[in-house]
Amino acid sequence: MSALTPGFRGRRRAVDDRVPPGQYTTEDFPVLSAGPTPSVKTDTWTFTVANERGERRVWTWSEFAALPHETPTVDIHCVTRWSKLDTTWRGVPVDVLLDGIAADAAYAVAHSFDGYTTNMPLQDLTGGRAWVVTEYGGEPLHAEHGGPARLLVPHLYFWKSAKWVSGITLHAEDRPGFWERAGYHDYGDPWLEQRYQAGF
User: Which residues form the Oxidoreductase molybdopterin-binding domain (predicted)?
Assistant: First the structure.
């Protein structure tokens, strides 16, 4: 029987390649919010996309439900250092919501019913990288996790995936949102550990 070199732990497991630096995996789904959970009813819910010229497109809940949906399975990463692997959602690709919207914008701001906002480059919402989701794990999205609908941008830290989302506005310039103005990183790439702005 051959001896093992001290400190040898065998081959790195594949799951480790899916967890950004500084993160740990969890089977739970921690609930973290900037304030109390709002009560958003589907009979009054609407979702609005507005371009930089103020032109708007609005969907009711029933109109939104009739749009093409996808069921992405993705890993999600919270700035508080937990990662949850293989989460499954159902929702409308942001590409579908932006289709036909005339815009020269380079940036977007997601808006929530509780007044929360978060910003990102528009390219991070397109190309099959983001959805507005209404289901998690095959069930309607619970209010504490952002139901009835939340933004899902899994390649960025999870504060970018705005809960209780009510719309997206497009802008020519970057407009920092709630946590960004409080010192969180403007972009939020978990693989680069972009948690906070310099000086925070």
Answer: 35-179
Give the residue numbers spanning the domain of 159.
65-200
Q: What angle do CA 186, 192, 194 make, to 5 degrees?
A: 30
Domain assignment of residue 170, yes or no: yes
Residue 177's nearest CA partner among 125, 120, 118, 110 is: 118
Residue 27 maps to a domain:
no
120-124: Cβ within 8 A, 24+ apart: 120/153, 120/156, 120/160, 120/187, 120/188, 121/174, 121/187, 122/170, 124/153, 124/155, 124/156
N-to-C CA span, the chain: 53
Q: What pTM did the predictor assign?
A: 0.90
Q: Give a yes or no: residue 180 inside a domain.
A: yes
List, for residues 111-159, the tens digit of each pLDDT value. 999 999 999 999 999 999 999 999 999 999 999 999 999 999 999 999 9
